[in-house]
């Protein structure tokens, strides 16, 4: 079976259904915001479903093959996201975000020094923006009381 827009649209609909099933039962142990944790996966599922319906409806245009090296970068991104999710609580937001940013930057041929500076700056900036500015509690991990 050749990959085309219609196949991708149907796959997107299945993925949207999975997100809906997974996200529908998310409940916070205590309510501190009116929307709760289920809003993000449900909104994301809606957007993916709308795109999936559009792709499935519009037709079977053939999809070009990925350029050389793209499949490796895609699989690397999947591994990076999994590692980020695993390390997030243990090492904390700042370090896990910095590491994720550094490795994603390198994946797209960024210079080491620029990736390191950008990763550390992004980790710290977003931590202070969300944790201190917006009062969203983020894990400090091994940095503990330094933040």
Automatic annotation (TrEMBL):
Stored InterPro entries: DUF1468
Keywords attached to this entry: Membrane, Transmembrane, Transmembrane helix
Domain of life according to the entry: Bacteria
Biological classification of the source: Bacteria, Pseudomonadati, Pseudomonadota, Betaproteobacteria, Burkholderiales
Protein's organism: Advenella alkanexedens
Residue intervals of the DUF1468 domain: 9-139
The keyword Transmembrane belongs to this UniProt entry's keyword annotation: yes
UniProt-recorded name of the protein: Tripartite tricarboxylate transporter TctB family protein
The keyword Membrane is assigned to this record: yes
TM regions (residue ranges): 7-24, 39-57, 78-105, 111-130
């Amino acid at each position: 079976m050749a990959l085309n827009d219609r196949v991708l649209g149907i796959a997107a609909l299945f993925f949207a259904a999975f997100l809906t099933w997974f996200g529908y039962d998310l409940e916070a142990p205590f309510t501190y915001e009116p929307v709760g944790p289920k809003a993000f996966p449900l909104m994301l599922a809606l957007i993916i479903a709308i795109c999936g319906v559009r792709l499935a409806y519009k037709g079977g245009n053939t999809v070009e093959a990925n350029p050389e090296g793209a499949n490796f970068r895609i699989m690397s991104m999947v591994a990076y996201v999994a590692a980020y999710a695993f390390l997030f609580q243990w090492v904390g937001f700042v370090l896990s975000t910095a590491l994720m940013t550094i490795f994603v930057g390198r994946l797209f041929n960024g210079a080491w020094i620029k990736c390191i500076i950008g990763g550390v700056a992004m980790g710290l900036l977003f931590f202070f923006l969300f944790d201190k500015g917006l009062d969203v509690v983020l894990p400090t991990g091994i940095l503990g009381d330094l933040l």
